[in-house]
Specification:
This protein is of the alpha/beta class. About 35% of the residues lie in helices and about 15% in strands. It is globular and about 65 Å long. It starts with 17 loop residues before the first helix and ends in a 5-residue tail after the last helix.
Amino acid sequence: MTSDFPADYAVWHGLSPMTDFFRDADPGQFLVEGDGNHVIDAAGRRYLDARSSMWNLTLGHSCEPVKEAMRRQLDTLPSGTVMRYEQPPVVAVEYAARLAALMPAPLRHVRFGNTGSQMTEAAAMLSRFHRRVTGQPDRRYVVAVHNGYHGTGPLATALTGEPILHEWSAPLDAYVRHVTAPTLPEILALVEEIGVERVTAVVVEPVLGSDIGAVSLPFLESLVAECRARDVHLVVDEVTTGAGRTGTMTVSERLAVAPDMVVLGKGLSAGYFPLAALVVGTPIFDALADPPLRLGFPNGSTTDGHPIGMAAGLAVLDVLTAPGFLAGIRETGRHLVELLTGLAGEPGAGPVVGEGMMLRLELAHDDGTPWSVREVNRFRLTCRDHGLLTSYAPGFLPLMPPLTLSRAECGELVDLLRAALRAHKVER
């Protein structure tokens, strides 16, 4: 620990070793205030937040309708649960109805949770539970995609296709298998290899993991059809792509046929409260609503459907469904792509990929070799020192600004990136 840190610093956090945190952090850079799409640190420095906190602060720090809804709920009913008993908070009933109405039919039933990881686990567990209740107990395998990301946890880590997590978190769920590429032939080949009669679900993202590429609608539509033909549940993880990030409420609504389940999170509450949801199709719900064994789905936690989160979610839906809001995200995204494309010729800057407020700037050396994840992380620190907060990934810089980014802030983002690219010392 450096001398800049107090001796009683007690927070153990992040995915990197704490020695890396103490090396790269400075208490003067700890964040103390949010203002619109910017944050301010303890030393008074101002940053444009191009990572939306952790991709979840979709409406910036100053969305008063969401804050006011949460304040009102605190004064009305500050706590409640939907996990047990027969008296759910009314605000949870209202929010579930509003959210379900925005989903493609027959996705009309909502289970609430606190994180995307929790709800991807719930999706896989619900699929298996459904099989046991309907007399198919051998259908327990779940197929996921190498390099896909579905969170961390006892089952979520297994679903996540990152080998390093598997290596160091083992033993994992033995009934999760991964394909090496997100292609229809590979997924179907693995299902056949396992045996259709033993596969319960396939879990995919519209945009793979943190790869921030383009959405492949034809692939998803074909996957829905092929899974449906095999009676395999298709779970679409839209924790990142949902709630307006790509300029629509969900990617799933663009499909000709809806998947069996959709997982939502992050932007559901605009990052103002822990909130996630699993939206389930009517066929699964109907099979479990009155089961032969008097047992409901045994999954949930105390704070599921928390009234403060429900109030925040309702207020966010008001913003997202306001006339022109989602179309404005798509338009601003196109404008930002145009500006980012103008960085061509700057050291390391490559093509821009993505849609809405879910973009990536590819980074490569002069010989075309992509920057390593360590190099991109060092560049992230250069961006931070220039007043721009970003994330990092192998070979590219994810850009996930708030959906409320203005045209002027698009220019600010690109100007800060240009300055950082010119100041960054490239290492091999």
